[in-house]
């Protein structure tokens, strides 16, 4: 029996109505998602869900890494939440506060495994501006780039820093020198040869906002400043934003990441390091790092400090046991000179100190436990004492004795110097790279070898953090002997610096940083390394990577994923080998307003 026509039409109209309504509903939903805050917040929450899943589900994270490596992940990697603007993965207070407080272990580096870390790009703070160029940055920085008022509020009366409109300004003061670092340095120069090139490398321990290091630069002294991640909020970030060499570290249970006899001058201004605690372990570490003939300056407690007579007596006793020459006690400042030649420890030993065995490597310092023994100058080959090495700037180009001690060291050093002079000239002249201020101030060389790249830039107003990968030949001692600075580091871990702290990152042989030395397998992912490079690079900063065409093709795919624009160039014509050069720029991107 047939259905009446009116009924048939009624049913067809119902279907049509449903399809039409659905179509208009989808269009309306599309407009809502595209043009309203609700859409933004839903998208943000979807991104956050994906982001959290990459941290909580290692397999999901690994799938994302594999897609990025293969070039099949067409979207850029997502940005991290807005509260991650100052995130340092290895110095995360939430994670590290669970650890032992003995010898400040919890304030040292403790890195999460890559699979425990969300794969995301650290955003800049709201209102971020391109950094004030050097040398103005020494005296003022944008408040919006580091909107932390704690130091200015607490330390303003000591001249550390002040808030002035859109800027933080730095009058140059410090807790022990409220009259300014210049005045304080003038006082020290009565006792120490701060001019004339005798002293070149310095370590400022517990440095505040690095006004001491910043002021020493005008004397031709290159001071590296360090402090832990701190309650004052980001001292080291302020130092780097000013263009002063600095990194995050804590003198706790391990050696600091430097070779023996690196520094001509070591300085503590109210750094509160308990030098005589734990059988003088921290004084012994300072002694390992101080070049024979070098100077140690301690200002503040316990030097002639009220109610600290015992600590002051102990400090003098340790210095005596190590045969340090007392140069001066001026108010609350003491200055010692380290002896040249092996210590007189065996004959006079009022502090229970011993010399290290000949077998103890003096310059191993990557996750290396502090030793309770004194490093013998004779355990390091060659002439390393102040007075026997050339003055600055001659020491930059003269082959150090620690290089000559290596196999074919003299020839390798001279060839390396020539190679980098040629390469840096090519970067400037043919690739049009500006490697000087105002465009560039803070530079990093991720695979520095003898510091040839940094040496070729020495006449410019930049400074270079020379990184020696901890699994490669430990040539950082040669870098310090040349009057340059740097640290040991393993690039399968994040670096101890705040986000957005370097203008230019240089790396020769990027894949070698993550490969196992005995095979073609990687120890970690190139994606994670590039996300870390993005974290420490300032917006509008540049990266230059030298490697084989195959590696650079991979890097170019990943550069898109971290939102860099990149181009690949031929190498300089005089160089041998198959290398090419990739140059990339990080854009200044802003987070969508609803991504909190």
UniProtKB/TrEMBL annotation:
It comes from Brassica carinata. GO terms for biological process: methylation. One of its GO terms (molecular function) is S-adenosylmethionine-dependent methyltransferase activity. It is a single-pass membrane protein; Single-pass type II membrane protein. Belongs to the methyltransferase superfamily. The chain crosses the membrane at residues 12-35. This is Methyltransferase. InterPro entries: Put_SAM_MeTrfase, SAM-dependent_MTases_sf. Its main location: membrane. Pfam families: Methyltransf_29. It is an enzyme of class 2 (transferase). It comes from the Eukaryota. Keywords: Glycoprotein, Membrane, Methyltransferase, Signal-anchor, Transferase, Transmembrane, Transmembrane helix. One of its GO terms (cellular component) is trans-Golgi network. It is found in: Endomembrane system; Membrane. Its EC number is 2.1.1.-.
